[in-house]
Amino acid sequence: MAFRAMHAEWGTVFAHLPDLGCGQAWEAVWKVRPPAPITCAECRHPMHAKTSHSGLKFFAHAPHAPDCEIARQGESEAHHLLKLELANAARDAGAHAELEVRAPDGSWRADVLATDPAGSWRIALEAQLSPITAADVTARTARMREDGVASCWFSDRPRPPWLGTVPSIRLATADGGGLVVAEGMVKFTGSGWSVPPGATLTDFLRWVFTGKVVSHAPRTTLHHPLRQLAHVWTAPQYTAAEDTYLVEEDRRQRELEEQRARYQAKAAKKRAETDKKNAASRRAALERATKAEADARRLHGTPAGARWQAQLMTRRGLRQAVDHLAREHGITATAGLSLNDRRWAGGTPLIGPDGVPVAVLDPESALVDGEAFRLLAGMLLVFETVKDAQRFDRNTRRRRKIPIDGWRMAYTVAPAPEPAGKPAGKPAGKPAGKPAGKAAAKAAVPRCRPTGGPCRCQEPELSVTISGLPHPAEPADRMTPAAALYTASCRACGGPYDKPWRRTA
After folding, report:
1. Domain limits for position 132
2. Smallest Cα–Cα separation from 123: which of 161, 152, 143?
3. Both 298 and 410 in a single domain?
């Protein structure tokens, strides 16, 4: 099916034109005897004038046609109708239009070639209804561009996947029956591209031919419901508006970055001043703690004091903490004798060989305040397990007693990994429900999680603050005088202990 052929006397004839393009009627070539001397413009094989069931006029090859490009095309009637619409619209827009124009070297073939009557430009109007890849569309566009021929691709399918890959337009049928631009033409509004009022195919081609609409690669967002197309058609003033917007947006972004940099510099300066003040405060607190430890050692500088220090080394977790400092930090530490000082927040100070405190073992979150907060904020806090460290951090956060750079914490017992193939929560090598020995029975008792209420731990770890100093305690069978005056707290869950208790040595 073709619309162009060669007549032996009249030259090129066009089936879609009322006068065949040579001043002759269609009946001069259709159903005449003998047949009209019409041949293919490409292979020179005889052709016949035909009319489809819908009334479409075209030329078809006679039987036994050679391997001709036009004969192989097998284009649908809808494709030919769209080509006719493009050709008619191009002529109405003031251009000279020819169908099925082939390149001199045969490298490309234009469905419709629209040409300026003055010969200043050529634009190929491609009707594409059958499936095609974006790569093929791009390659065919590039071949035509090499010969100085611009192109625009058209389709009336709902969502052609190649739309926007090259300069292209999706068409739709208007209520009146003509073709209008449905997608591919946009205008710039504010900060992105939007849909302009509908334009007829003739108007669109007239704007393209006169330069009022140009192909453009947008650099900003196409607002919904538009798809994000790589190439669109728009007016030159809209491309200039996009350039102006991008320049202004770049200026705004630079101002924001400068403002952000000023804020960051101001925050960094303020943080540096805060760190300097904190460092001075922590250094002064450490000097006072070192003096307090020295005073305590002079006060207990007797054989009884040495026995007391040896007894302190047997406290729970203290030996492991000393070993941790030696192994991880290379520090030889001993238990401090000033542990009853409230500045340690109920914990045990660990003193280095030069008499300077280096760490605190198991401080209580409820006692972290004032001097204790300033001292502990700059020291290493050692706990037995990671859960103890997490509990301390959680409770101090609840009381809003957290250093600006956080706590420095370590723990001496690593969490035991679950053995392969064993159910979670069951000791390896032991049957479920049969813990072996006192240690296993103790390990089987779950530790109470902080609830904010009174302590309900099965094995509470009690401590009481009397006259500003922490003292260890334990549950008792009956009320003691101290329990009547003071309230003990549990170090395991952080809650108050409302049952009888008594002080321990």
Report:
1. 79-234
2. 152
3. yes
96/34 same-domain check = no
In angstroms, what is the C-alpha Rg of the chain?
46
DSSP state of 469: E
Do 67 and 83 fall within a single domain?
Answer: no
Q: Which amino acid is at 156?
A: D
Q: How far apart (Å, rounded) are the C-alpha atoms in residues 248 and 342?
A: 62
**Structure-token match 């100085």, residue found:** 148
The string of pLDDT tens digits covering residues 50-83 is 888 777 788 888 887 777 766 555 567 788 889 8
If asked whether residues 85 and 224 sit together in one domain, one would say yes
Task: Tell me the per-residue pLDDT of 1-24, one tens digit each, with 9 for 90 and over.
Answer: 677 788 888 888 877 777 887 888
Residue 253 lies in a domain: no
Task: Write the single-letter amino acid at 463.
Answer: S
Are 72 and 146 in contact by the 8 Å Cβ rule? The answer is: no
CA distance 480 to 329: 44
Amino acid making up residue 448: C
Residues 384 and 452 in one domain: no
Number of domains within the chain: 4
Measuring CA to CA, how many Å separate 337 from each of 294, 308, 326, 329, 495? 9, 8, 20, 22, 28
Residue 312 lies in a domain: yes
Give tens-digit pLDDT for 289-333: 999 989 888 877 666 666 766 777 777 788 889 888 998 888 898
pLDDT tier at 417, thresholds 50, 70, 90 = low
- Helix %, strand %, coil % for the chain, to 5? 35, 25, 45
Structure tokens at 383: 């706990």
Per-residue 3-state assignment (H helix, E strand, C coil) for 395-411: HHHHCCCCCCCCCEEEE
* CA dist., res. 102 & res. 112, Å (int): 10
- Rounded CA separation 48/359 (Å): 104
Instruction: Kindly report the pTM of this predicted structure.
Output: 0.55
Which H helix or E strand runs over 233? strand 232-234
DSSP labels, 416-461: PPPPTTSPTTS-TTS-TT---HHHHHHHHSPPPPP-SSS---SS--
DSSP 27: G
What are phi and psi for residue 474, nearest 5 degrees?
-150, 160
Q: What is the CB-side half-sphere exposure of residue 332 using CA atoms within 13 A?
A: 2
Is residue 172 domain-shared with residue 315, that is, in the same domain? Answer: no
What separation, in Å, do the N-terminal and C-terminal C-alpha atoms of the chain show?
110
Both tokens of residue 132?
A: 């095609």
